[in-house]
Amino acid sequence: MKEAPLEAVYGIFEEHKITYESFCEGHREMLADPKLVVRIEDHYYDWAAAAPSIISMLAFKQQISNEHVGQPLAVVSPSAKEEHPFNIVVN
Q: Is the pTM value of this prediction over 0.70?
């Protein structure tokens, strides 16, 4: 896992953030893209690592244990958490 400066990670993420409309139009391609990055709180994951957390929350309304989730690609300061913990980006 890489520690990354907030400005660098957040800036890249925000620059490529997917809108709801674009997701509706191209969700199959986006979810299959190996460059997909998902932000969950202050951690950035590839889709394979993030999917178990997202599916667990949607299907069971509870967070899956960290031992069953992949390693994040990057972590930013916990004080930098945004109001919306789930965002998706394709680089």
A: no
- Per-residue pLDDT of 46-76, as tens digits, reads 888 888 889 988 999 998 877 777 777 766 5
CA distance 40 to 12: 15
Alpha helix stretches (DSSP H) within the chain = 6-15, 20-32, 47-60
- Find the distance separating the first CA and the last CA of the chain, reported in whole Å: 19
43, burial (CB in 10 Å: exposed 0-12, middle 13-18, buried 19+): buried
Beta strands 2-3; 74-75: pairing state: parallel
